[in-house]
Each structure stands twice: as C-alpha cells, then as structure tokens.
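Structural prep section.
Before we set up the soaks we want a predicted structure of the protein with flavin-adenine dinucleotide in place, mainly to decide which crystallisation condition to try first. Input record follows.
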Amino acid sequence: MLSLFKKLTSVSVMTAALLFSVSVYAKDRMYETDVVVVGVGGAGVAAAVSAAQSGAKVIALEKQEMPGGSSNFAEGLFAVGTPEQKRLYVDVTAEEAFKHAMDFNHRFRINEKLLRFSLKESTKTIEWLKEQGVEFDVFRVSPEEPQVWHLVRSKGNLEHGAALIHTMVTRANELGVKIMYGTPGHKLIYDGKKVKGIEAVDPKGNKVIIKAKAVIIATGGFPNSEEKIAEWTKFDPAKVKAALPLGKTGDGISMAMEVGADAGGFGLMLTPGILGPGMAPFGPIFALSWEPGLWVNKYGERFTDETVIHNFSLAGNVVEGQRDSFVWSIIDEDAVTRAEKEGVVTGAGVLTPVGTKLSNIRAELQTALDAGNQEIAIADTVEELAVKINVEPKRLKKTIDDFNYYKEHNFDEEFARDPNSMPYVKKGKFYAFRMKTYHFVSYGGIKVNNDMQATDKQDKPIEGLYVTGMDVGGLHGDTYTLWTSGAAYSFAATSGRIAGAKAAEYSKMK
Ligand SMILES: Cc1cc2nc3c(=O)[nH]c(=O)nc-3n(C[C@H](O)[C@H](O)[C@H](O)COP(=O)(O)OP(=O)(O)OC[C@H]3O[C@@H](n4cnc5c(N)ncnc54)[C@H](O)[C@@H]3O)c2cc1C
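Run finished without errors. Recording the tokens verbatim:
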C-alpha cells in the first residue's frame, strides 16, 4: 500500500514537474538582436537612439511600466560652449570646468580621462539632443555657480527632464527600437570571454532571453537599495533616505560585477530637505527652510556657516554629519516677511527659483501644520520654540543670542560667515524647519574606458559590455560639485550617446 502510494506520488510529481517545465518552456521568449539596452532612463534612451542611428537592431528593457527613472525629475544638463550660452555671453570653457572639478575632488580617486572626455563632449551632446527635438534654456542652479545648466524646455504638461525622455522615447520608437516595459534584466549571458545577451523577466513572470552582440547597462544606480547603500557606501540607510521611490536597486552594477567587471567610487548625492504632510515637494516651505538663517543640531548648537546651503550637496553632507543626521533651520518673522515680499535668496531649483516671492507662505505653513506636519514648529518666543523642537531652552537662547551678537558686531567668531549674509533672529514669531538628509541619486559603479566599455580588475575591456549613466564609477569624489551642475544628467546622455555608437560598431564586427 505504502509502495503504491509512493509510486503514485512520484508519478504525479513527475507529471507535475513535466507539465510545469513544459508550461515554463512554452512561456519563455527568445529574441535575437544586435544591441540590448538595459534601462530606459536618460542614459538608456540616449544609448538606444544612438545605436539605432548607427544602424543596429535594438531592444531596450525597462523595469518599470514607464520610461525615465530619475531623469524624469531632473531639470538641467551641464554643458559648455553651446549657442545658448554664447547668446548670453557665457564663456565658461571645458578646461575651466575640468580644473574646477579636479580641485574639488582633491585631484585623486577620479577617472580623470573620463571626466575630461565627458565635459568636453557636453557641447556635442546638447547639439545631438537638439537634433532629436529637445530644446534648452541656459540657467543657474544656485548663486555660486556659473551658467552651465541647460534647463530642458518643458513640452505641454511634461516638465524638463520628463520632456527630454518623452522626446527621446518618441525618437527611439521612430527608429524601430523595441522597448519592453515591466521587464527587468537580471542576468548577463556570458561565455567566460564575451557578454552575449541578457536574461530578463516579463510582467507575467516569464523568462525573456535576449541574445545580443552587445549589452549596454543603464539601470541608474542603487538609490533605492538600502542593502547596497549599507554594503557599498559609508552611509547609514536608516538616516539617509532616497528622495524618490523609483525601484532602482543597482541591478546593472551587480550584473556587471558578476561577470568580473571592476567597480568603485560608491557614494550618494546628498541634500538636506524637508518633506511631510500638507506641503509640496521642493515648493515654498522647502525653499523657506533653505533660506540661510541659523542652523542648530539636535542639542541646540550651531555647527556651520549656514550659507553652505547654496551648494545642496555640500550642505547634505554637513547635515548628514550631525548626530542623527538632521538639523533645525531657524528664522524669525522678519525673514519670513522678506521671503514673502522680496523673494528667496537660495531657492529650490526651478520649482522655486532664486528670487521667488513666497506670497502665500503663511497659508501654506498653516495647511502643513493642520495636516499634522511634525517637521515645522512655530512659536511666539524662543523658549516656546525650544520646547517644540525638543531642545534645552537655555541652550537655544544662548545660541540665538550669540548669533545675533555676531551679526551686530559684524564678525562671526564661530564659523567666519559673511555677516552681511546673516539675518537677525530676534522678532517673534520664530520658525524652525527640521531638515533631514536625503539623496537624489547614488554615485559610483562599474569602471569604464572612454568607449564606455566595462573594464575588469586587470583594466581590460569586457567584450560586449558597455555601461552608462549612474551605473558608472569614477566620476565623483566625496560629493557633487554644483560648479559643473547638471553633470549627472549630462553624463547620462553623453555616455549613452557614445555607448550606443560604440556598441553598434562592435556588433557589426561580430
Ligand atoms: C529630483 C531629482 C532631480 C535631479 N535633478 C538633476 C538635474 O537637474 N541635473 C542633473 O544632472 N541630475 C539631476 N538629477 C540626477 C539625474 O536624474 C541622474 O543623474 C541621471 O539623469 C540619471 O540617468 P540614468 O539614465 O543613469 O538613470 P535613470 O534616468 O534613473 O534611468 C534608469 C532606468 O533604468 C531602469 N532600471 C533599473 N533597473 C533595471 C533593470 N534591472 N532592468 C531594466 N531597467 C532597469 C529604471 O527603472 C530607470 O528607468 C536629479 C535626480 C533627482 C531624483
């Protein structure tokens, strides 16, 4: 009886296994192409268009149901020597930008050749994007940088980066690129010498095998993987949060590492920020919190020259370095009135540009408080404010008194801040905004040569494998310099353009 049961069970298990394997086999899909692009964000769509323009048959895989990744939310691209700049008599050169970036990065732990190449190529990239239908206006992100930011002109209700993605995806479709949405690539096909394609999974969970002569990785880094942030960077993901949930988990970098690609330069593009119920992201309250008043840490102590906020990535690092990685930005009633009537000094990108008058700010603050926003505290007195932000009142009072003293005596004894930039913090009401540490994108990844070919630990190119955008390592040191602001999106487009052409060329030699 038992043996019969065993036999029946084993037959049914075998039948089930057979049926299962048949059904899996039946649902597997196989494609052959010249070039497969993994990720359809800024770098991926540039790679797909460029490869198709160079005569390759292209398939592009996108993990999400829509293209664009973080490029949809970005606004401007770095470039020098463009007609848009010449019209405004802006004459920053690629050489000046390179020297600045090298100094900023302490002249080491940077792939100098790649940085130099990508800054020089920025002029051609803007020209090429314009040929595809993208339009630009030259702009400045913060008061302390040159006019190198090429703000993408919005199209209808598609703003900036999203307009670029839409234009380029339309172009890719016109060129016959097959884009497969909801189909993340997860494993490279590698014969020990050459990369020959990729395995992916479609939205129904079926395996998609794409045999290709070349693979271009463009998956946009690892900002949404807490595990990889903990493993690859020095930051604590419990304290440093992604600005946007985009599902970018370092897939491309991991896949390339699995076939022997070398990697490095890992980090995060940090920014201080205030988010919470009842307020718009990067809107008026966000901009008000970025006005350089007085900053205190969780103990109520001042710790920096607050004008560091004019460079968001440096400021992000300063805030991250404080205990528990948050600070309170404090201003008084007069500062709110100035922002209301004269406009903001720092601004928050193009959503609330420098000089914007926050004419409705009081109602907006009330809406946020009514929505239970715990990141904002407003009080009639310093003592009351201290209680609300959980700081010892005497300590906060002394910090504010010292700050006002430095302003009055025209000398910031503690951090040598320009006294002209210091507002008094004297007149109630007093306002405090809790700025936490967020990150826009990750840095670092696979090492590449100037053809965007992945290189291994002997610095030899891995045949058939190209890497682009935020999956590339070696362009950033400690953090991001706003002097070459827009360099991230610019590199995404440049590296995609180059990788597409080179991969197409390579595929023809096979
Ligand atoms: C709010 C915000 C504002 C920014 N503003 C600027 C700016 O003004 N200027 C600037 O230079 N930079 C800016 N950045 C950074 C900029 O967005 C990026 O550096 C750059 O655009 C990234 O391009 P990318 O192609 O590498 O990644 P993305 O554009 O993010 O594209 C990656 C794509 O790969 C897909 N993907 C991920 N995994 C897989 C997988 N396994 N298979 C298939 N597809 C996959 C993703 O879904 C995504 O669509 C900003 C970022 C944010 C978040």
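Observations: The chain is about 35% helix and 20% strand.
Flagged for discussion at group meeting.
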